[in-house]
Amino acid sequence: MILNHLKAATHSRHAALESRLPLLDAHLARSAYREFVHLFFGYYEPLEETLLAQPCWESIGFDYAERRKTPRLRQDLLALGDSAASLDRLARCQSLPPLASPAQVLGCLYVIEGATLGGQIISRRLASGLGLDATSGAAFFSGYGPQTGSRWKAFCAMLESQAEQHGHHQDMVDSARQTFETLGHWLFPKYPVFAAGSP
Length: 199
Ligand code: HEM
Known about the structure:
Layout: H1 2-20, H2 30-52, H3 57-60, H4 70-79, H5 84-89, H6 102-130, H7 139-142, H8 148-166, H9 169-187
């Protein structure tokens, strides 16, 4: 099962990210939250542009375009006080995971889609702590709302079937690890440097 393998192989990288993100803190300020949404926007926009420019979508048979997260991040930032011009000026991450093969795309998608699970916990906290919902600045972390579980299951079924048909499991794992690491280093200067191949 590739999913079990991906989960085990990225466990430390997930833990390192989760422990640094202050999004569940009882005292999270709106301004600090907004700064994180700026950073997520600066990572996801170039990542999703690169992902969607890949030629593999037809062969994978998966519609990622309608799962894009950048429009939600944009909507959140506009609700939180940004303008289209201020979003244009935000820094964009230049260091993205490798996305040249279907296996690399799928490894990256595992991380991006998996993040919607943690988003469900974060969005509840944003509602209780900052009074934000999907219309007022928390659309990104709200993910697919009540459909999040079923959409994750649909994604996992596609991933398992692709991995069974085409292999390249190590490329998927490496890409998932690099997705965590590029995001981690973009968000936090002190995100650890993991040895290649470490769990
Ligand atoms: C405060 C931040 C976060 C919290 C509290 C959190 C929490 C969680 C939780 C509760 C799950 C479900 C675990 C399970 O059902 O076994 C999960 C899964 C996952 N999260 Fe996070 N998460 C956070 C941030 C992130 C971020 C930023 C990413 C990546 C961009 C991420 C990627 C994933 C992935 C890939 C999975 C799927 C693991 C699997 O079952 O294979 N998470 N997270």
